[in-house]
Amino acid sequence: MGGLSMADRKLQALIAGGSRDYILSIKRNLEQMSAFGRCAIAYSGYEALDKFNSLCPDLLVTDIILRGLDGLSLLEKIQGSDCAKNCKILICTSANTDSIVRKVFDYGADFFLIKPFSDEVLHETVRGLLHLDGAQGGYLDGGLESRIMGVILRIGLPPGSKGYHYSQYAIKRLVEDRSLMEQITTKLYPEIAEKYGSTVGRVERNIRHAIETAWNKGDLEYIQQLFGYTVDEEKGKPTNAAFLATVVNYIQLSMYRVN
Question: Residue 176, Cβ neighbours under 10 Å: how many?
């Protein structure tokens, strides 16, 4: 939306999804935040596209599964538009495959959340995306490696293992260069393999083993808080890309300077 700055007006959000309960829950939670006015909703992809182009919202929250036009196709259609230039895009999905993670960022999303997630996780994510409550655009000086170490140790990645070191390096590089999210297997893994004198296959397997160890022996309450879904055998463990992307999201949001 043009005109007044974010600090001088209520923010506009557009929420798109196939479930009425899901949409109204997101709407209610955003409207509880003082920065937002009334939020617009859409129950299909084409309705979301029309409202996006007419409202030019500050925030688009969309599921991938939408009637008529799916969420990724919606992002593809709005990518590069004038409205998209000043809009933060948050994808909410229950899918966590490597291909979905790559497509989400390739099509212009800023962050994604794996459903279901808590109100607190949603609020923290939105505050970070829109630099609310005193958050500034820059990151806190220094401390990136220690923050990464603190998070992955608490998750339960075995310290000293190859998977731990590979994951730590991968997360740092993804924070520094978000475009690598679309090139995890083609560029990031080879970079790690070269740095540590390993192979791409071993890098992938060692990160996988570290994740599986964490899910079996780590802090499940913390894991559930971070990843937004109940940790059990039926849900399974996130893919390498989904794991790395979720931790990167958390690190980036937590490192905005808050006065």
Answer: 9
Interval 201-251: pLDDT, tens: 999 999 999 999 999 888 888 888 888 654 555 557 888 998 999 999 888
Cis check for the bond before 116: say yes or no (omega within 30 of 0): yes
User: Mean pLDDT across the chain, nearest whole number?
Assistant: 84
Whether 176 and 122 share a structural domain: no
Q: Are residues 164 and 55 located together in one domain of the fold? A: no
Q: Are 66 and 45 in contact (CB under 8 A)?
A: yes
Q: Which of these, 82, 64, 59, lies nearest to 74 by C-alpha position?
A: 64
Q: How far apart are CA 156 and CA 158, in angstroms?
A: 6
80 shares its domain with 64:
yes
| Whether residue 17 is found in the same domain as residue 102 | yes
Decide: 27 and 53 in contact? Cβ < 8 Å: no
Structure confidence at residue 257 (pLDDT): 38
CB distance 13 to 30 below 8 Å: yes
| Structural domain range at position 114 | 6-133
- CATH code of the domain covering residue 172: 1.10.10.10
CB of 11 closer than 8 Å to CB of 130 = yes
Task: Please indicate, yes or no, if residue 1 is contained in any of the structural domains.
Answer: no
Are 11 and 56 within 8 A, CB to CB?
A: no
Nearest residue to 63 via CA among 78, 53, 55, 74: 74
Same-domain status, 150 and 249: yes
Measured CA to CA, the distance from residue 56 to residue 60 in angstroms comes to 9
DSSP state of 183: G
Q: Quote the CA–CA distance of 73 and 109 in Å, as a whole number.
A: 12
Distance, in Å, from the CA atom of 197 to the CA atom of 192, rounded to the nearest integer, reads 8
Domain boundary among 133, 150, 171: 133
